[in-house]
Request: fold
Amino acid sequence: MSRKENKQGILGWLKIRGYSIEKLMYVAQRISGVGIIVFLLSHILNVGLIYATTGILWEPPGLIGKSVLIILGIIVVFHTFNGIRLVLAEYGFIVGKPERAVYPYKMTSLSGAQRLALYLVLAAFIVLLYFWIMVALNLLGW
Amino acid sequence: MSELRKVQFKVFRFNPSIDTSPKWKIYEVEVDRGSTVLDALLKIKEEQDPSLAVRYSCRQAICGSCGMMINGKQRLACFTRVLELNTRVVVVEPLNNYPIVRDLITDFSDLFNKEKMVKPYIIRDDTLEMLNPTGMYLQKPEELLEYLQFADCIECGLCSSACPTYSTDSLFLTPMILNKAFRFSADSRDMGLHHRLPIIDSEHGCWRCHFAVACSSVCPKGIDPAKSIQLLKRMIASASIFKLVKKKETQLVSRHHAVESVV
Reply:
């Protein structure tokens, strides 16, 4: 893209400075979504290759395999909870009703029910993360 | 008389018809607590560098001409006080995601072309009344409230510049245009949603919005474009999937009757 066109490209997705926490959640949702897709594709390829070469369909994961699964669990939990918030927001359930714009302006899509849902997502994620870490430590035998 | 303070301005300079790459120029300006970024830029233009290109008109956040990136965020230059930024160096660039005309001026042609596509006017079935108006359509205060907030848009383009989808998808309708589409579709007098659907319910329409809410974070007029886009999605989903279309029954009052009631 030429300088004259002035398009931000992918950098426009990742820019969070100066914006609200919702933009950060947007970036996290994108990265976690890409992470899940990358895992899924590499997992299918990996299992397929092992099965094709050795005939073994499943064997207990090693230390690297367990670590990948633990990280995947964290990503999936975040992506799911935030996804529920986004579905509610994108169908207009938590963004507030149209109202008169009175100065100092308060955007209901950045406050009220939507912001509460965002904090609930973060709280639920932290609680589940704690339990997940406990499971992970057990899995790793620590 | 308020105290004057020296502030450095790092200004983006680029003339695409001459320059091969942009350059930054630094200017030092004396500002007081009431000085806006636009005041400072005009002072630079008058006293230091007349070649600096800035677009502005009303100087009071009504015309939406002076949108630019100020310290990395989309803002109106006339609505941003220099000292409230609380930085020693103020970085000023043209708005992201629009082609640069020169220096701080960007080209909004793409937005205005897209605006025409969503038919930003009241569409009605009663063609005869539209061609030869005999009266006016009544509107209740609660019906007015359905779109009033979104009608305040000054088309400054800050929202579309901040939109992450528009940064990678040039065909995306952008928050400013989708807000306009919702403003008219939500109007109790309008019957044109199905005329707008082929554009707003398309691959590059409202469903490409992923609720980053950057548009609402930068809107200087309290429009909340993120809200209008989500409400537009809801309206389309209700109309397309559940066949739920809000029945609009607008009462037409004859001009004669309206004048009599006022008198």
In short: The helical segments of chain A are 10-14, 21-54, 63-90, 112-139. The longest helix of chain A spans residues 21-54.
